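Lecture 7 notes. Example A: sequence first, then its structure tokens.
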Amino acid sequence: MGARIGPTLRDNTIESKSEIVKHFEKFIKVNQNLKAELLKRVSIVSYSKGDLIIDANKVGSKSYYITSGITRTYFIKDAKEINEYFSSENEWANSPRSWRTGKPDIYYVAAIEDTTALCINADDMIFLFDNFPELDRYGRLSMATLLDHLIERIASFRFTTAKEKYAHFKQTYPRIYHRIPLGMVASYLGISPETLSRIRANK
């Protein structure tokens, strides 16, 4: 695919990593012990546009909390990349099944823009859940966000016309739809780039 694999490590000061604490505080109360463990176990990484973040041929043992940029999650079928969903600022990007099972899965994750993220290993997250029971609540609430993505993806198949599909896509990704390349949007919608161009031109 020609994409560079591997992150560039960034400034890993406590101040730079504080975004992860702010994220958890939206769901639960973060005490000093949990805060210290979070800051110790996350690292800041950055990827250039087009970089491959997770390779489907390898175990996706890391999860990325995006602080800037956009990623796409996709699989390959009949030598074509099929985009499944997109993640942006204040969202996680990972390969959920590979993360959970420790085995390779079908999904790749790549950066659409220059992207900076807070990275945590699966083993570190397991440690946190084992030692901080309050994270159970975080797990339940954050899982709801993932389910929302999946439900919206399933809902998109209800729309029969290309115009309806694109309208639903913009509703699903209101903050970032205009930042995603036309070809990737067309792949997500299951329509041709030419059809999507006509829809955009006639908006």
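Example B, a different protein, same format:
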Amino acid sequence: MFSPPGPLTPTDTSVDEAAEATAGNSSAEQSHPPPDAARVASPLPAAAGNPQEQPQNRASHPVSVGTLGVCHSAVREVGCQATWSLSSCKPGFGVDQLRDDTVETYWQSDGQLPHLVNIQFRRKVTVHDVAVYTDFKLDESYTPSKISVRCGTNFNDLQEIEVVELNEPAGWVVIPLKDLNDRLVRTFMVQIAVIANHQQGRDTHLRQIKIHSPMEEKKVTAAAQQMANWNTTEMLQFVNVR
């Protein structure tokens, strides 16, 4: 069973928070997601199923299959900041099961390919990678064999960033997201599309999805270090309350 990365230390801050520090006082609201039935996406525009493809000479980035490695100590999971919706789902096998931090449950689609997971943020987010948990031994023909990851502002301008082909995967499939200039993607929306399943299966199972954003340590300035030194004469005079 996968255990998500531990809590951040007070000195940690995400790249996104630093980038958005001057963007204004946008509210960081997160509402409790509605029931699965309410979160099944309404019929998508034609562009959602046929995103604008990147040029064919797009650089391919290595995809790892297995466990979430040590590198994920330098990222944080930001899926809780997004609104999730699905192209379809069986009752009781929806977003809640996809995001409950256990690989014993799963999302099961209920419709025609491609099957879509839509992840929409309220502000632009830097995405380090998308991690998907699959298990061919348990799911067999429900296991995805080809996954497309698309990014954009909304359904109408999605562009394909990565296409991954899987051969009987078991564990976390970590898909790094970078643009044509080999830089991390900054986006309002991520769409994960299951293009095909093993053994020509129609519906699909995904057991977990994680969206990771990079982090950096906040440097402590000399002035801050001096403020932290409570043993100076200036600070010791305030030890006792009069």
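Note on Example B: The chain has one domain: 12-20+31-236. The two ends are 55 Å apart (CA to CA).
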